[in-house]
Write the structure tokens for this entry.
Amino acid sequence: MLEQPANTTASVDDTQYDGQIIAALIDTEQRLLNALYRDGVSKQLVTARAAKLGLTQEFIKRCRLTGTRPSLRTCIKCDASFLSAGPHNRLCRRCPPR
Ligand SMILES: [Zn+2]
């Protein structure tokens, strides 16, 4: 998710952008998935890879609530690539913190 620009004003009617906000949060995800499907990536492959990466609904929800930016990152201890919840998360699940 993009950072909020510093010049954002709060003077607009709170409900004015509701439709666009809903579309942005829901449709963007669908549009990105549709782009994958157009490239020949099946829904089953997306689901299987997401499960393999540990990209569960719970993980996604937690990232959205905390505003962290999940990404594949390299573990600083064992160099394995893993699904990291954000820049603060640099150790894979197999490498416990000291
Ligand atoms: Zn590791």
Summary: Residues 18-53 form one domain.
